[in-house]
Amino acid sequence: MKKLIFICFILCLSCKVSTGNKDTFQKNSNNSSNNLNIEHRVDSILKLMTLEEKIGQMNQYNGFWDATGPVPKSNEKAALKYEHLKKGLVGSMLNVKGAKQVRALQKIAVEETRLGIPLIFGFDVIHGYKTIGPIPLAESASWDLEAIKKAAQNAAEEAAASGINWTFAPMVDISRDARWGRVMEGAGEDPYLGAKIGVARVQGFQGEDLASPKSIAACAKHFAAYGFAESGRDYNTADIGTSTLYNVVFPPFKAVNEAGVRTFMNSFNILNDLPATGNEFLQREVLKNEWGFDGFIVSDWGSIAEMIPHGYAEDIKHAAELAANAGSDMDMESSAYVLELANLVKEGKVDEKLIDDAAKRILRVKFELGLFDNPYLYCNEEHEKDVVGKRAFHDDALDIAKKLIVLLKNENNILPLKKENQKIALIGALANDKTSPLGSWRIAGDDGTAVSVLEGLQQYKGNTLTYAKGADVVSPGSNITFVNELKINETDTTGFSEAINVAKAADVVVMVLGEHGYQTGEGRSRTKIDLPGVQQELLEAVYKVNKNIVLVLTNGRPLAITWADDNIPAIVEAWHLGVQSGNAIAQVLYGDYNPSGKLPMTFPRNVGQIPIYYNYKNTGRPHGKNSDVVFWSHYSDESNKPLYPFGHGLSYTTFSYKNLKVEALPNSKFKIMVDVTNSGTVIGKEVVQLYIQDKFASLARPVRELKGFVMVELEPKKTKTIELMLTEKELGFYSQHGVFIVEPGEFNVYVGGNSNATLSTTLILE
Ligand code: BGC
User: Fold this and answer.
1) Does ligand 1 have an atom closer than 6 angstroms to the CB of 644?
2) What is the pLDDT of residues 304-338, one digit of tens each?
3) Range of the domain at 711
4) For the chain, what is the domain count?
5) What's the pLDDT band for 77 if we cut at 50, 70, 90?
6) Among 124, 173, 209, 300, the one annotated catalytic
7) Among 75, 176, 276, 729, which residue carries the largest CB count within 10 Å?
8) CA–CA distance, 563 with 281 (Å, rounded to integer)
């Protein structure tokens, strides 16, 4: 009987396969018959599946296979997982990598289970797979959508060659809180920029054809409001109003859905008292019904079981019931579905139709990836060797790394550095670190593979370069891994004297300070966001002997560096830049690349200002009428202003803006025109930013909202007229009930090189 079913299935499959070739399974195909074909094949399989097998598709396990051979690790849990795999009760695995490894597991699914349904292999390909690129927050500072797309494309090609079909990226969570360690993984604070970048990443990962061996399925995460964790503490509760949800949190998710992202991940957090994983409003009402999402939703790691400590589910069975009914299609590592769902269906607590729907969604994506046509499409070891670590990936990693470095400050044009006859002192443990620049979330990346700043600067031979560590950032002996808490050096200053001596003898001091790569990322929230450990002390000690300092920051979140801004002449935000880190930094410091990065997140003056973001709403008391009187919205001990505003970033040249004009076009469209001039002496790139303010509306609207940007490259003294468009899409907003509305009225329009742009005009929407 078993064989018979299997044969019927194979017949059914092969007759379907023969009706279309592989590249007809792409998601965005114009040929709707291909999609119909996939639907037909999904339905045919579903009819053959038992309830348990359908639920099996909804079950995702973390890798449990021994790297050395086909023997599961000998603990009970692994043995049970192995049993489940052989019975066709596993639909997906994560954290399995390498063509050989993936093939071994896929073989079990395809050859040993009753129906031979292939697994889908997921992995956190967050900023590169093996060739680690800049962290996503850094990438976002390039505002270069093509370069961002290319980075995702390369990551997909490399990961796919290593057996991966699906990445848990992009994270499109908006966050206004630099204390939250996961800001490094997103595109910053702005929904407009976040949406554009999210779409670029999805397009890069998924390509034109999902079934191509170079593309992988993307996953928009974490749905929703994970980035609004109270007090920036990871996994914490989010409590926000409908307007913020619709106008700030949802837009990037909605945009990537429209761009065809094939999966979503829900989130760990409670949103307005309901855990996102058990939230029917988010998953069924908004995502699947309103937005018409037809891919599948995976839970976050164990987030189904986490509804128990949330106090929402009584036990694991109840958690499975709540999650399945709410629309979580796949269970990542809670084992709740595989163990409990069949009984819940039998007891009438979960409708089998919902199971069918979830299984179909998962099978659909597997078809689109071409896994049914060739389950081993991603498992060619020779191809893996050729592709992983390709030179071209490194070249592209360098290209984007240069483009996103942000010049925060450059007094007296201390930068770029002169190329000859200079004595340069290089100070800071992070300057000689080949691991930290890889940043967080790089699980397939290898320690020690980044070009350090020291190595980068050593390539410029015309100067004398002397290096001194000054102080460790991480205490020696600390376990530096993705999972361990780092021990920061808070006391050891024994290297200061060497650094001071080196600085005394130098013309210019380059100090590389900031966070270790593992100080941001998941589970890495901080209450202090200044320079960690003794680095501030080191900076001040060096400053006493040589004020000619270029401070290069390497970090994964905005830092509060007010003292440095007050005292240090040049400050460069160099983030965590990945394998090409030192090369990119050296090229920028020496002016071989003229910096063009712009901040995707506001830098506070002080951690107490957080949450601080440019698109805030005015209070009723925005200004003090009399400086002695306290009754206006302010702090007694700190300015309301940030240290560096959203969109800020300097260049070795300067840009000026004039002639801002608005032309009203039919159908509520407006053409915005502005003349941008390179008013300096070297060629440079500028991100021209367009902001609006809806002056009066049925809901209070932000003082400014980014609604367009364009990158322009100009030779010195050259001017270009830039055109940007505003339509109802940019001028409208969501009501308290989640309805998109466009209200007539007057808008302020600002254009410039950052969110404080002063050149302005108005437009009237009739
Ligand atoms: C993270 C997700 C990630 C998953 C799988 C979770 O802890 O929140 O973003 O994709 O683990 O590694």
Assistant:
1) no
2) 999 999 999 999 999 999 999 999 999 999 999 99
3) 655-765
4) 2
5) confident
6) 300
7) 276
8) 46
